[in-house]
From TrEMBL:
Protein name: Dienelactone hydrolase
Recorded GO MF terms: hydrolase activity
PANTHER family for the chain: PLATELET-ACTIVATING FACTOR ACETYLHYDROLASE
Keywords: Hydrolase, Lipid degradation, Lipid metabolism
Length: 340
């Protein structure tokens, strides 16, 4: 029947139009970027996935990347040698694709970027959050990621092992700071959380973590810095109050620190604030007016903007902010690790 045929044609045209529109919003880069997934093994013997972005000469295509579309060349050949490496550590319950736009910006600028899916603390699995080794376990996974990229990743011979940086968001910010020398006083966690409860405290409480019990934090304090990491960028780092303590060890690499003005989950007063003071005058500090905690996650496509982690307060423009932030992060690494 003619009306059925017309209806099917109309549906096909509409679907094609939606497809064109969606793919036209895909994140793009100035230079081609390749992507592949690799698998590493942690110190506990458990495997975990790493998303890897890198420069390539291959033709990229729009590809689904978490809650965004990105134009990449899947499993393409790597372009260049002696490339610097940046490790990205996602936040609590996150995933490697949470900072896909930053990974693309860095890879387009000539970096290899590796983002591990933290075992036991990702969007699929939160089982490690309730353990005594939750904090240091993440730091060990970060080190295992560097180990894998330098020795077992198929393109390891393209990396310059003397030029490594790290980026961390939220719990990932804590992870990166401990990887570059900070030694947290976890004994402060139950005391602080009883006095000034915040989102990070609620995460541990819901998980039934023994770290919320006074004295229990002494069970796991095995933080080992990775001297291979030469520069760090941290955004909205959690548990800053425990890092910026008199016994907190020393960070001896350049640090760029970001804080969101309207961050109700990781308040400036107990996190970025004390860290800013503790790190001293050498820290490069950025406060983002109008931003909330989740504003540091990659901009969402129009089809995902109704999701909770895509929503913004007021008229804050996440895409415009990320364009400026990514450029700043690239400049920071250009200054501190890009040049031999």
């Amino acid at each position: 029947m003619k009306w059925i045929r017309r209806l099917l044609i109309a549906i096909a045209v509409l679907a094609a139009g939606v497809g064109v529109f969606v793919f036209s919003t895909a994140l793009t880069t100035e230079r081609p970027v390749g992507f592949q997934a690799t698998r590493a093994t942690g110190a506990d013997g458990k495997p975990f996935v790493i998303g890897v972005w890198y420069p390539t000469d291959a033709r990229p295509w729009p590809t689904v990347s978490g809650f965004a579309f990105a134009t990449v060349a899947r499993d393409a050949a790597i372009a260049g040698r002696g490339l610097p490496l940046v490790i990205i550590s996602h936040g609590n319950g996150g995933a490697p694709m949470g900072h896909v736009d930053l990974a693309l910006a860095l890879a387009s600028a000539g970096y290899i970027v590796a983002a591990p899916m933290h075992g036991g603390d990702n969007y699929e699995d939160q089982s490690a959050v309730g353990s005594a080794a939750f904090f240091s376990g993440r730091t060990r996974q970060l080190r295992a990621t560097v180990d894998h990229m330098l020795a077992r990743w198929p393109g390891h011979d393209r990396i310059d092992p003397d030029r490594i940086g790290a980026f961390g968001f939220s719990m990932g910010g804590f992870t990166v700071l401990t990887a570059v020398g900070a030694t947290p006083d976890l004994g402060m966690v139950p005391t602080h959380c009883a006095r000034s409860p915040e989102f990070a405290c609620e995460v541990l409480r819901r998980a039934g973590s023994p770290l919320m019990t006074v004295g229990a934090s002494a069970m796991e304090q095995n933080f080992v810095a990775d001297p291979r990491i030469k520069a760090a960028v941290v955004a909205a780092p959690g548990f800053g109050f425990a890092l910026a303590s008199p016994t907190g060890g020393g960070v001896r690499v350049p640090v760029q620190l970001w804080s969101a003005e309207k961050d109700a989950s990781v308040p400036y007063a107990s996190n970025a604030g004390p860290l800013r003071q503790w790190l001293g005058a050498g820290v490069e500090f950025h406060s983002v007016p109008g931003a909330g905690h989740l504003s540091f996650l990659a901009p969402c496509t129009v089809l995902a903007r109704q999701l909770e982690f895509c929503a913004e307060q007021g008229k804050f423009d996440r895409a415009a902010f990320h364009e400026a932030m990514n450029a700043s992060v690239v400049r920071f690494f250009e200054q501190h690790i890009k040049q031999p």
